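The instructor's notes for this session suggest beginning with a concrete chain rather than abstract definitions. Hand out the sequence below and ask the class to guess, before any prediction is shown, which regions might be ordered.
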Amino acid sequence: MTIYIGVGGWVFEEWRDNFYPKGLSQKRELEYASRHLTAIEINGTYYGSQKPESFARWHDETPDDFVFTLKGPRFATNRRVLAEAGDSIEKFIASGITRLKKKLGPINWQFMATKKFDAGDFGAFLSLLPESRDGVVLRHAVEVRHPSFACEAFVALCRKHKVAIITSGDSEFPRIADVTADFVYVRIMGTSEKEKLGYAKAGIAQWAGRAKAWAKGDGPKDFPLVAKAAPARPRDVFLFVISGAKAKNPAAAQALIAAL
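After discussion, reveal the predicted structure:
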C-alpha cells in the first residue's frame, strides 16, 4: 500500500513566494511541487481537453514515484441522463491521459450537488467507464454531493463496478466513508487562514491517522459507514487538501506527509 498526499493543481498566484521559492520560474513550478508533494489532482481536465503532449510533459517533469489524479470532464457528469455520457467519456479517455503511464492515478468523476441518486442511470454511467486503455489500468472514483447517495444501494453499486466513493472531509457535503474499490480517495476541505499549516497540529495528526487506517485496511473508527464494512486488506490511499484556505493547502499537505 502507498499513501499519496497532494493538492489540486499547481498554478496558483498565492502559492508564489509562499509555497514556491521567491523568483522561481512558473515553468518550474510543477518540478518543484512534485518534489515536495507526492500527488497532484489535475483540475483542468474537468473544464476542457488537454493536449497529449501536455500529459507526456507532465510525466517527464516529475519523479518516478509521483502520481497525478485527473478530474473527468464536466460534459460527462453534468447531464440529466448519465447513460448518454459515453461519447464524452471516450473522448476524454482518448485525449492522451495514458501518456502519464504509471503516473496516472484514479480519475475523479465529480457530480454537482443537485444530482440525485438514480440507481439505474448511475449504474449505466459506471458501466461506461473502461478498465484499461493502451495497456494502462484505469481506476475510477466518483465524487457525489447529494444526500440521496448516502444509502446501501449506492455503496453496493460502486462495489459491483469496483469504483471508489470519494470521501469528503471537513466540508458541507455528505461524508460517505465506505470502501468500495482497491484504493481510497479522500478530499479534505477544512484548511484555515488562522493556522500556519492550514490545520491545527491535532487536525494534521487526526487525518494522518485516518490515512494510515485506510491504508492498513481497517478504516478510521470515527467515521460511521452507510453499509457493511468491506473486507480488511491493505489499499492505496490518495488524499488531497482541496478548497478551504487554498493558500494554506500545500503547507497542510506537506505537514501530512511529515506526519506519515
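Then share the key points. The two ends are 13 Å apart (CA to CA). The mean pLDDT is 97.
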